[in-house]
Protein: histidine kinase
Organism: Streptomyces glaucus
Amino acid sequence: MGMSPTPPARRLRLGLPRRMFSQVLLMQVAIAAGVAVLATGLFLAPLGDQLDDQAMRRALAIAQTTAQQPRLAEDLRSTPPTPSGPVQREAERIRRATGAEYVVVMDRRGVRWSHTDPRQIGGVVSTDPSRALSGREVMAIDDGTLGRTARGKVPLRDSTGTIVGAVSVGIAYDSVRARLIHAIPELLAYAGGALAVGALAAWLVSRRVQRQTRDLAFSDIAALLAEREAMLHGIREGVVALDRAGRIRLLNDEAQRLLELGDEALGRSPDEALGGGRTADVLAGRVTGTDLLMVRGQRVLVANRMPTGDGGAVATLRDRTELEQLGRELDSTRGLIDALRAQDHEHANRMHTLLGLLELELYDDAAEFVGEVVGDHRATAEQITEKIQDPLLAALLVGKATVAAERGVALRVSDRTRLPDLLIDSRGLVTIVGNLVDNALDAAAGTPHARVEVELRAEGRTAILRVRDTGPGIPVDRRELVFTEGWSTKTPPAHRRRGLGLSLVRRLAERQGGSVTAGEAHGGGAEFTVVLPEALTEPDPVPVPTVPPAARAVTEEESR
């Protein structure tokens, strides 16, 4: 039987733990330990130098005191170097009194007159005494017969000031090291206490970070951030995040496109970034509700705002411009269908009338009847196109006249209407006229002697539009409110919301530097006035016919 292969042993993988709590705690403890060790080292290094300096200065002070003894220089000159001589006795007395390692008195040749070891008396010193014998004081750390010592050397002078020798005092370096070593446990105790406090603080901070990050690893947080960025900038819905102070802190790509803003809006309030208005009110939370309608430029937006736990808020924006356009087209299509249905019914009645006239062989009456029917439609179209030379506006009003007739409303073009084919933005004016006429037809429908009058005229390069109706009119306190986005007195249809037409009219007018106002028409009803400066181009100059020279000569000849 074959033996199954033994699975390979798993290799131990050393490294940082994955959880943020463990990583932060480990890093902070390591930092605290490193700071403690560094602080201890930075403290001990100058401490050793200070102790060495103190020892050398102490040795120098003892040497200076010894050299100032009144009989020492005389005894050096008058007695031989012996262990029982006066110089040895005085030096030993001073050594025992000061606690020095040695006190050596030497003559100018460097021969010892005193030493801790009596056998060294009479011998030459082991270190160079020339600097002290030349009159200078010396401090140093030297290695001599007694080991490593902190030394101080001074010249020895007699009563006349003549240098007769030198005094060398040493303090064992081991005594300095012992002081340093003695201080280390206390220093380590302080360092350990600081490390313990740092570890406790690190643990508390790590616990707080753990709660706030839900114990995720750094790699998980980085992945979540990358996913968040990809999601925010990839979705086809605008996202605007505001902090607790109401300043914009995030705009994804779609929000920048819908609001026509850039990165310069970050850190600013909605009023500063958008210049006020309903959009700024919705983002700032001054207007509350769900699926709030806004108009930004030529876009119709739906906004929802939700507060966040940190006191800020997140607003989402959806573009409903195309949906609104489709809804308006659907309304127009329904109106045209109703008009066509009514025209079909009227056409059938007229055909029956015409058929009856033909069966009765009243041919002249039949021809006159057809002429009247065709002439009415032709007269309406000719009347409009004669006064309004822009083809888009003329076609719009011809179509609106047909719809108005089927709704029982007389659509009339004022006698003052004169508009040349010089419009810069005819499509924008078509939108304005279409919205105002639709509102006027809705207001006038069902009223006695229902009528809508349209006046379009040019004054220089300024286009002036007035739309009057015989409806119930608009109260004075609501004449500004009617231009607010989302406000309407009519019940909205199922496929879309109302309250955008007049708001869009005002936005289009203001975009061209114009204005729109609501007032009361003569005889009752509402009157809307739109003024669009610089809406028309300058007319081409009429060329003046010139007379050729030959023709001019013939004319002059004939005049004679």
About this structure: The chain is about 50% helix and 20% strand.
